[in-house]
Amino acid sequence: MDKWDVRFMEMAHLVSSWSSCYQPNRQVGAVIVKDKRILTTGYNGASSGITSCKDRGECLRKKLNIPSGTRQEVCYAVHAEQNAIIQAAKLGVSVNDATIYVTHQPCSICTKMIINSGIKKIIYKEGYPDEFSLELCKEAGVQIVKYQND
Length: 150
Fold this sequence. Notes:
Order of helices and strands: HEEEHHEHEHEHE
Strand content: 15-25%
Helix content: 25-40%
Number of strands: 7
Distance between the termini: 8 Å
Structural class: alpha/beta
Radius of gyration: 15 Å
Oligomer: single chain
């Protein structure tokens, strides 16, 4: 990893601190970058106008005993990667051929969005129990790299 990878992963970590997720281990941040320029950022949190788990004082997924890596649709939050891509669409910013730095490996739903948005590289720090997302990246030719800051 070079100094730019370190900087952008640090930024993703900072962005994750803005998460409105009730569980500290579920705070995820994403930064979409092209040509060493930040295009957009995203963190996991409730959609506009929806009360977040943090404000509700409990995690819906934990309350319903939903295991990590399953049934991602049962959650008030939009994933960090999704929010970063949505922000780009809202602002009219192309993410084609960009790199996304994410604090956690994307789930298969986010991976499909990343592939279709034209992002060509994913750099993530923490693992996630979703092997299917790795298979999707391989088949689509999207490079996925586990962040190592030696």
